[in-house]
Specification:
Strand order of the largest sheet: 1-3-2-8-5-7-6-4
Number of strands: 8
Order of helices and strands: HHEHEEHHEEHEEHHE
Structural class: alpha+beta
Largest sheet: 8 strands, antiparallel, barrel
Helix content: 25-40%
Radius of gyration: 18 Å
Number of helices: 8
Length: 251
């Protein structure tokens, strides 16, 4: 599958225009987390300094161990291979770190060893970074699946047009698309709602999606499906921006 990433760039770029980005609710205003026992998923985009990849690997490895002290973990690390849609400098790595609650995240952030790791490795190996604190979408039940390093991954930052009309229009698209897309081998790992931004580089999206593909051939079949073709204009007219990254899983 990793070879397929390189061989299928044009196909994947076509796919992103064709409708596997889905969501579920018309209310997409930015939220503030209220349940302090709710799981937190940090999504971080890293741009590494040239020649400092090995140093950053040390940070990732040791960070995994430290997170375990607080019942947390780095759930997924994506190595981007191409920007299929949108305007964004392609990051070197995208991390998804899962914390059981706000208290665990706050305790980890103050951990002396983590602070030393930041000083020793982030400052020396990271050129720039941005990220979002997110929570699982509580209003969207779906069959969650877990991929592996053999899969091709997609990460989507989704931005809606302002106005109830467009929110409702996208919801209509979603309700119909959800019945079709899984037939073609797209599997969803996370639907995330950002509630805080740890940067001033990139606008906070309304949603972040993470999913993986069984094959590019299945995606091509989905693109050509007459049911999806009829839905695409409704989706496209409801979005003001979409950033879509294709990559492989390092973890």
């Amino acid at each position: 599958m990793k070879k397929t990433i390189t061989l299928s760039l044009m196909l994947m770029a076509t796919v992103v225009l064709s409708g596997f980005i889905i969501s579920k609710t018309a209310n997409k205003d930015k939220e503030t987390i209220t349940d302090k026992d709710e799981q937190i998923i940090n999504t971080a985009f890293f741009y590494l300094k040239e020649g400092k990849e090995k140093d950053f690997e040390k940070l990732r490895s040791r960070g995994n161990v430290l997170l375990e002290k607080y019942g947390a973990k780095i759930e997924r690390v994506i190595k981007p291979k191409m920007l299929a849609m949108g305007d964004l400098d392609l990051p070197d790595e995208i991390h998804f770190a899962v914390y059981p609650n706000v208290a665990a995240k706050e305790a980890f952030d103050k951990d002396p060893e983590f602070l030393k790791l930041k000083q020793d490795y982030i400052a020396t190996s990271v050129e720039k970074m941005f990220g979002f604190a997110t929570q699982n979408d509580p209003n969207f039940p779906f069959f969650r699946e877990i991929g592996d390093a053999t899969k091709t991954y997609g990460i989507a930052l989704i931005y809606y047009k302002e106005g109830k009309k467009f929110q409702e229009q996208f919801t209509e698209y979603h309700n119909e698309a959800c019945e079709i897309i899984p037939e073609f081998g797209t599997h969803f790992e996370r639907f995330l709602i950002p509630f805080a931004s740890a940067n001033d580089l990139v606008e906070q999206p309304n949603e972040i999606h993470r999913f993986y593909f069984d094959s590019p051939e299945g995606m091509q079949q989905m693109v050509q499906d007459s049911r999806m073709q009829a839905l695409f204009p409704k989706r496209d007219d409801s979005l003001k921006n979409l950033v879509f990254i294709i990559g492989e899983a390092l973890q």
